[in-house]
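>> received
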Amino acid sequence: MADTPLQRRFAADASLLPHMADLANDRILVALLGEEDYRAASFLDQRLLTERIGREWATWDALPDLGAAAPPDFIFHIGHVGSTLASRLLAEASGVLPLREPMLLRTLAQVAERIDRPESLWSPDLYRRRLAQVRGWLGRGFVPGQRAMVKASSVITAIADDLTGTGARALFLHTSLPRYLETILAGEASLAETLAQAPARMARLAARLPGFPHALWQLPPVTRVAMSWLCEMESAQRTLPAADARHQWVDFEAMLADPAAALAAQCAHFGLAVDAATIEAAVTGPIMRQYSKAPEHGYSPDLRRELQAEAAAKHGAAIADAIEWVEALAGRYTHLADLPIR
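>> returned
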């Protein structure tokens, strides 16, 4: 319930973003954003906190529980497969309020990883209550009836089922293992980021596969990238089963082949009433010619394919070895065999 002036304003005002949590002191940093700040931001993380963005700490319990407020819808992904592009196109075509990689979701994922361990700061019940609370916070709009759509970071797929609950719909973006390897290897920054996340993903994957026979130090870099793909795909297989009509799985390469049809299908999945002319304007506009995470830089599907081809030629042997490594695991853990390994 919203009983204090802060709680009443927070409940009604999406400009008050619960940005990040300080678990040790049980408090939330609230940042002040306009609607255009949301639409422009590629990441609602620490990069958001420039001098012009007002912010203030509040104790967690000082913020309201919005109860049965409309939850946001979600975009999940395995990383570097067009989730930011999808978010920008959906926001452009439909007017939904985009929240791209809100930092608070990382805190929930970190809590969830430790929830059954002695060092957990939260009980399982407190985790469930606060996760529902955060879902309500992220579902607010700037005007009555405005839908919110959260584009999560890739590691959040591990708790996707907790976040979507029973009322939200989700889009899951992925690609086949060969295309993923080529994409990551095509950029120094994407490779460095993926390798930096490899230890945490290895731990998550090993926890899900009993008797996991490998250690990270045994794997060459390209195989570590393949392991990262497998970790996130296995997570989605569990938390976002494709058989559930609330989850739409989209291969990003297929989306690029016919972006208008893909965007129309995504709008239909989320129940967004968008006409064909609006969709065509979105996919023929500047969004498809920009690097979505940094729109000041040009990028295109053709350039993406060129870079993938160069990476395939340069790293062909290592890519083949990495695919064989994943196939061997799929032979051992048969539920992985349904994944697009080839």
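>> Residues 188-208 form the longest helix (21 residues).
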